[in-house]
Amino acid sequence: MERPQQINDALAQPTYVDSSFGNTPLVTLRRLFPPGIVVQAKLEYFNPSGSVKDRIVAYIIDDAENRGALRPGSTIVEHTSGNTGAAVAMIAAARGYHAILTMPDKVSPEKQAALRAYGAEVVVCPTDAPPDSPKHYVERARYIAAEREGSFLVGQYDNLKNREAHYHTTGPEIWRQTQGHIDYLVASASTGGTISGVGRYLKERNPEIKVVMPDPLGSIYEHYFRTGIVNSNCAYPYQVEGIGEDHIAGCMDFAVIDDVLTFSDEQAFLAARRLARYEGILGGGSAGANIWGCLEVARRLKSSARIVTIIPDSGLKYLTKFYDDTWMHNAVNTRTC
Ligand code: PMP
Fold it and tell me: By CB distance 3.0 to 4.6 Å, which of 26, 57, 304, 325 could disulfide with 36?
C-alpha cells in the first residue's frame, strides 16, 4: 500500500534525538557575582539526554556509521561516569544498536537507572580500582569491546573526535552567543574534550582569552599541569562525578589551559546548591565546580571581566546525593548551604 505524502514527509523529518543536539542557551547569572563581573553559563542539560555528552557521542557515532565501523545490530561499548553512557544508550535506542556501559560505583543511582531505562546493559565497577586494574571501569570496557565481535568502543578519552565535536559545535555557539565578548572560559574536565575543543576555538579567534580549569583534589591533572609529571600518588577517590582523572586523557590539550585551580567536594557541592538557590539553575556537581572556579577567578580580578562557563548536566541526576541534606552531612561532613 502506498503511503500518503504527509506520512512520508513526517518520516523524512530528523528523529527527536538527531534534531535536538546543541544550540543550548547561554544565560547571564545575576545574583551570585559582584557587579562588574559578568558570568554567562551554557546550559548543556538542554541536550536531549540531559548533558554535554550528547554532542560528542552523536559526532562519534555518525563518523563510525559513515566509515562502516558500525552496522545494524552492532554493540556500542563505552566507559562512562554516566553522561556519555546516557548519550550512547539514547542514540543506541533510537538507531537500533545494543549498548554496554561500564561505570564506577560512585555514579548516582539516577544516572545508572537512566541507562537501564534506555535499554542498555550496565556494568558497575569499583571506584577505587587502580587505572591499570582489569576491574577499573575503563579497562573493563576495553576488555568487553575486544571480546565481543562486531562491537564498537566509543573511547571518549582518546578519541580525538571528542574534542573535535566541541571545536565544531560548542565553541562556535559560545562565540556567536557572546559576540566574541569573552575574557575567561572556566571549565572543569575529565576527557578534556570540552575545555580543549572550546578553548582552542576561542583562542584561535582571540588569543587573549584565558582558559581556567577547576580540578578536584584527588585528580592528577593539577599536578601534571604544574610539573609535567604524572604522579599517581596524587590520585585518590573523591565524590564529585565526571571530572578530574587518575590518568592523562588523550583528548586533554594542556596547551590551551592557562591555569588549574583545585577544589574540594564540599566547595563544588555548596556552589551547586547556591547556583540552584540564587540563580534558579539546577546543575550537577561539575557545574558547582565550574561556578566555584568562576567565583575564584572573580575574587582574584582587579577589573571587570566577562566569564563563560559550562553547566555540563542537570542536578536532577543527583537529587539523592548532594541535593539531599542527609547525604551531604554524611558524605562531606559539611554545612548544607
Ligand atoms: N561534567 C560532567 C558531569 C561530566 O560527566 C563530564 C564528562 N565526564 C564533564 C563535566 C567533563 O567533560 P569532558 O569529558 O569534556 O572534559
Answer: 304
Residue 255 per-residue DSSP state: G
pLDDT in tens, 69-115: 998 889 999 999 899 999 999 999 999 999 999 999 989 999 899 99
Q: pTM (2 decimals)? A: 0.94
The answer to whether residue 210 is catalytic is: no
Q: What is the pLDDT of residues 126-145, one digit of tens each?
A: 998 988 899 999 999 999 99
State the Cα–Cα distance between residues 315 and 304, nearest whole angstrom.
30
The highest-level CATH class for domain 9-46+169-325 is alpha beta
Q: Ligand 1 pocket check: which of 52, 137, 241, 260 to mutate, most ligand atoms within 8 Å of Cβ?
A: 52
Nearest CA owner, ligand 1 atom 14: 191
| Rg of the chain, C-alpha, whole Å | 20
CATH 3.40.50.1100 residue ranges of the chain are 9-46+169-325, 53-153
Cβ of 314 below 6 Å from ligand 1 = no
Q: Is pLDDT at 42 greater than 70 in this prediction?
A: yes
Name which of 3-17, 89-103, 304-318 the model is least confident about. 3-17
Give the contacts of 92 (CB within 8 A, at least 6 positions apart): 76, 98, 99, 118, 119, 120
Adjacent-strand bridge partners of 184: 210, 307
**CB count in 10 Å sphere of residue 42:** 25
The minimum-distance atom of ligand 1 relative to the CA of 56 is 15
State residue 17's pLDDT score: 65
Nearest-atom index, ligand 1, CA of 166: 15
Q: What phi and psi, each to the nearest 5 degrees, are found at residue 74?
A: -65, 165
Q: Give the domain 53-153 fold.
A: Rossmann fold (3.40.50)
